[in-house]
Amino acid sequence: MGRTPEFFVDQDLCTECGDCIKAIPQAFRKTDGEEVAEVFNADLEETFMPKVQQIMTDCPGKAILWKKA
User: Fold this and answer.
1) Which residues, 6+ apart, have CB-to-CB distance to 36 below 8 Å?
2) pLDDT digits (tens, 9 = 90+) for 42-53
3) Which residues pair with 27 in a beta bridge?
4) Could you identify which of 24, 58, 59, 61 might form a hypothetical disulfide with 15, taking C-beta atoms 3.0 to 4.6 angstroms apart as the criterion?
């Protein structure tokens, strides 16, 4: 099985809603000492792709982005 491409949270755009953490707790968590989210595990099986794409679309701040190669 393949892996998802790498993604990250642009903390300047994060609205601190926590939706990404609720949707994919295997990948997202709150940053220590702050309320913004971060990706702590981007090494997900490709079966997570639909969820990752959905949370990218649903993110109110459009803060979840693909890393450029």
Assistant:
1) 9, 11, 14, 16, 30
2) 999 999 999 999
3) none
4) 61
> Would you put residue 13 in left (φ > 0), alpha (ψ -120 to 50) or beta?
alpha
Q: What is the pTM of this model?
A: 0.90
What domains are defined for the chain?
A: 7-66 (3.30.70.20)
CA distance 12 to 27: 19
Give the DSSP per-residue string, the chain: --BPPPEEE-TTT-----HHHHH-TTTEEEPTTSSSEEES----BGGGHHHHHHHHHH-TT--EEEPP-
Q: How far apart are CA 67 and CA 33, in angstroms?
A: 24
